[in-house]
Amino acid sequence: MPGLTVRPGPVSGMGATIETTNLDNLSDNDFQELREALYRHNVICIKQQKGFSSRAQADLTRRFDPKATSYGHGKTIDAKRSILHPDLKTVPAHPEVQIIGNGHIAEYEGLHDFKLKHPHHRTFHKSAIPDELDLDYTRFYRWHIDAALFGSLNPPLVTSLFAEKVPAGRTQTALYDDDSDQSLQVPLGTTAFVSSYTMFDLLSPAQKAFALGTKVEYAPHPYVWISTAKSRQNGLGMVSEGLETPVSDLPAYEESDVQILPMVWQNPVTGQLALQIHPSPVRKLYCADGRVVDDLEEVRRIVYELQRPGIAPEHVYAHDWEEGDLVLFNNHGVLHSVVGAFREDEVRLFRQCNLAASKPPMGPEALA
Questions:
Q1: Does pTM top 0.70 for this prediction?
Q2: Which family does it belong to (predicted)?
Q3: Taking a C-beta distance cutoff of 8 angstroms, is the pair 317, 14 a contact?
């Protein structure tokens, strides 16, 4: 793959396309070009990869972090109460690779006669689009980082998504359904991405200073904790109604399992700064002046005000999937969301792979 040809996408700094069919024999130089492209464009799509195996996907994903070993969520998705549990099926031969999608699958990757369910906002949001409008309109399900945010599982560096089967033929209108009247026309079953570098750049000087000096504490067993609560209608964080699972009802954990991460993460290639927060399971903020914000409604208000400008329609890259697409994204520099509502006969079959990173995110102190 000499002289990698990278075609930038329509959203600045995000969504480049690479035309190649030679992923099975990447030299070290080719891989370094690929890595450079990823960290400069943050979401890259390598076209025409039909037949790309789950093993090859796991190997390529691991190449970005050779010391990483386990799936990004470890065994935490095994908890039946986790909001992630219904959405994933594990490839038996490669447990770091998950199968996601929609519809009945007769056989795939050693599994037989199973059904996939595409996440739908009605199961997670405070309110839902009326059923009669469901196939024409949709929402961003949950803006998030791929990360367990718990225990020793560091947020994965890179996630890979492979499109085996893609339903086609129609688009939907993604509604924000907040006080903005914003919407975005999107391909059916798109994956939507926003740049956390853009999110940081949009902050005021005072907001940037606050973000640079603040750390975020995530809830223990975060995806069980939020499983009984509801999301904002634009998918950017939770509504505060006191419905979170009480800490006393969560599975057992040690205080050392609770993750506290910088609010700002640094790009290892460009040095850019990302406002990188998973808004749903945030619990406390530790400020540079020693103040601790532990009122949950206030924590969510602060985070929302920082992040909301960055998900405006002009900043969203909605990938238009084709069968054989392999998408890699910089999980330390973007947020992403499932989008879409399918008919039962619309089959979507994808594979996802990410690995818990071998070290924590690089915070802004790395600039010193």
A1: yes
A2: Belongs to the TfdA dioxygenase family.
A3: yes
